[in-house]
Design goal:
- With 358 residues, the protein is of the alpha+beta class.
- Helices cover 18% and strands 36% of the residues.
- The protein contains six helices and 23 strands.
- The chain has helices spanning 4-29, 81-92, 107-110, 221-229, 327-334, 346-350, and strands at residues 31-32, 49-53, 59-65, 68-71, 77-78, 95-101, 112-113, 116-117, 119-125, 128-134, 142-147, 153-157, 175-178, 184-191, 194-201, 204-207, 230-238, 252-262, 276-278, 284-287, 294-307, 312-316, 322-325.
- Strand 22 and strand 23 (322-325) form a beta hairpin.
Length: 358
């Protein structure tokens, strides 16, 4: 039987070993080092091409064009340069003084492994390139990151993985169609069920093909008019109409006519700056009331093609690019049926009358 003193010595030894292990883990996993730029040998201004992908293989690629950042895979569709430049500056200025891990066994847990990551980020400048793996984070505006081919994992301060959104529409002006709804005066929809013409009548709409004596069921007009006047794209496809887009045999076509305000003419020569005018006898007539606004008409056509995996192909006659739109926009027009636009008669609503009792 062990003596009491030996047991106490064993307990002390185990306690010392535990404290030593904690000390080693703490000092090695959060070691502070001199700050060094994560983009070795490259500055934000040098970067000509950026790509980043998520764990589901969704990827966004930007290239620096003459007029700013563009999507090279969509025939140079412009993106919002300020957003890309801001992201680049954050990456270039990451504070990487905290060394978190050096053992590859920790890469998957930190989500910075070659095959297990939050984001895989590539930056190119001429022949030079940098590949980074970004993982989870220890807090707000922080990210675990590792250079490809290296074992050091840093806690980067000043960036989060979610800021590298792989949703293309995040990085561009997604307003593909944007006409003021109040200025739309006519919507004509063509689909497999027929042609439907809607004309503005003050604050409401009337259905031009409504049979005589029938009443217009206008409950679908809010979604029809809203989607005819405003469409946000999911992703630009490019400038070329590919066969797979199915636009030679569209599923729905929408013609929109709307009014545009005409810019007012320059003030007349004898009108003062304050809007008053001087009569021949030298007296001032005071400011005249503003002239009523003038409008001109404009129109565009929306052609909906094939349903692809991520959305429906759409081409506006007022835009250069073919794009993907949400299926909900497309269905507002494809599913339109004449029966949905006519209110049931009173007899239909009441049902058949009961036979009179003898």
């Amino acid at each position: 039987m062990l003596k009491r003193s030996n047991v106490l010595l064993a307990i002390v030894l185990v306690a010392q070993l535990i404290l030593l292990a904690i000390s080693v883990v703490t000092s090695s996993s959060t070691e502070a080092r001199p700050a060094e730029p994560i983009l070795a040998g490259m500055t934000a201004a040098d970067v000509e091409r950026i790509s980043f992908a998520d764990e589901l293989d969704n990827e966004v690629i930007f290239a620096r064009g003459e007029a700013g950042w563009v999507l090279p895979g969509a025939d140079g569709f412009p993106v919002e340069a300020e957003k890309v430049d801001e992201l680049l500056d954050k990456i270039a200025n990451l504070d990487t003084r905290r060394l978190i891990a050096t053992n590859p066994v920790n890469f998957a847990r930190l989500e910075v492994a070659d095959d297990d990551f939050r984001r895989k980020l590539s930056l190119e400048s001429g022949e030079a390139a940098q590949l980074l793996y970004l993982g989870g984070s220890g807090g707000v505006d922080t990210v675990y990151l590792r250079r490809a081919g290296e074992d050091n994992v840093y806690l980067g301060l000043g960036l989060s993985s979610w800021e590298l959104s792989t949703q293309t529409s995040t990085w561009l002006d997604a307003n593909y169609v944007n006409a003021p709804l109040a200025d739309v005066v006519e919507i004509r929809v063509e689909n497999a069920d027929g042609v439907f013409t809607f004309l503005r009548d003050g604050d409401s709409w009337r259905y031009a093909e409504l049979p005589e004596g029938a009443a217009f069921e206008d409950t679908k007009m809010p979604i029809v008019s809203r989607n005819a006047a405003s469409v946000r794209l999911l992703e630009p496809l490019g400038l070329e109409a590919l066969d797979e887009y199915g636009l030679d045999d569209p599923q729905a076509v929408v013609h929109v006519r709307y009014r545009q305000a005409v810019e007012s003419a320059e003030p007349v020569a004898d009108q003062d700056a304050d809007g008053s005018r001087e009569d021949e006898d030298g007296s001032s007539t005071g400011s005249e009331s503003e002239a009523a606004p003038e409008f001109t008409e404009a129109a565009y056509t929306l052609t909906f093609g094939a349903q692809l995996e991520d959305g429906v192909v759409l081409k506006s006659s007022a835009a250069e690019y073919y794009v993907l739109a949400r299926e909900t926009v497309f269905k507002a027009f494809k599913d339109l049926k004449s029966a949905d636009l006519i209110k049931p008669s009173e007899a239909e609503g009441a049902g058949l009358a009961e036979p009179a009792s003898e």
